[in-house]
Amino acid sequence: MNKKIAILKGDGIGPEIVGEALKVLEKIASKYCHTFEYSYVDIGGCSIDKYGVPITKEGMELCKNADAVLLGAVGGPKWDSCAPEIRPEKALLAVRKELNLFANLRPTKLFPQLVSASPLKKDIIDNGIDLLIVRELTGGIYFGERSTETIDGTVVSKDVMSYSEFEIERIGRVAFETALKRNKKIASVDKANVLDTSRLWRRVMHRLSEEYNDVDYFDVLVDNCAMQLIKAPSQFDVIVTENMFGDILSDEASMLTGSIGMMPSASLSSDSRGMYEPIHGSAPDIAGLDVANPIGTILSVAMMLRYSFDMKNEADVIENAVESVLNKGYRTADIIQDGMKKVTCSEMGTLIANEI
Ligand code: IPM
Ligand code: MG
Predict the structure, then answer these.
(1) d(CA 86, CA 54)
(2) Atom 12 in ligand 1: residue holding the nearest Cα
(3) Which atom of ligand 1 lies nearest, measured to the CA of 265?
(4) How far is residue 170's CA from residue 168's CA, in Å, rounded to a whole number?
(5) Which of 75, 98, 128, 299 to pair with 83, CA 20 to 30 A apart?
(6) Of ligand 1's atoms, which has the minimum distance to the CA of residue 92?
């Protein structure tokens, strides 16, 4: 197969981790006779430095014309004082919106090899952690109107959170369909005791749950969910939630598995196109040191093959390669433990590519 991939390395550790993911992708290409055509697009701070905007129109077009987008990470303290309209993160949100990537899948799986890297006590994670956060990605407070004005001598800022029934149903269907392929269990997370958007969310989810009556459905308030994720994480299978709650809960959930550096994500539209990225940020403090964990990005490539290119076997091969490198005791700094072999970011990428 021949596929066009837009490569957005971004800032901080972005170029390093994407470089390792490309090693893996090239190995897959040569082993399975695929051709991956890359177009490189600057995004985030590096684009602001070059062009004065976090992504150019040409860059956005390349993303739109690709079969899939692979992203490293954006942002860093250097650009924290940029005007809100040109912040690095603005480009990421723009790509999500322009490509209509409304469904963000964030699988959170505890690799058995990393049980002791999890901050949770062993008896809490003994039942395993294998959950999938389905985060709505193009609505809610991230995309509502914002304003800052002075009223009666004091500065007032507003960020509007709004959801339509259409947007909720659309993400709800993705979640229910995904649940059918997993353990047929969904927790829908909201703040329906306070927010109108959440009350609408709950009404729509209840309607869907009647339609999908094979799926075991329950509602959880977001604050309670934050607590339950620590107390009894194995009760969850699919978690569906709105944009900001999903952002917060996915960072929390990732930590249960030992390191946020392990976690991939897929952002999908209603066709097969998608953007794939690790859920962590640009980690400017370790950028350029070759110590980052590339596994989240490498597993994101596996998701790309699975969801956008329908290459299930190749995706499995990458996931198995990651497992076997972990089995052999290789660890990057974030997941290092006594008795394990510490490797750099580039060594980890090479080890995984060599397993393929
Ligand atoms: C994420 C990130 C982004 C988000 C930032 C970088 C805008 O935290 O993908 O989780 O908040 O969605
Ligand atoms: Mg986040």
Answers:
(1) 6
(2) 247
(3) 9
(4) 5
(5) 98
(6) 7
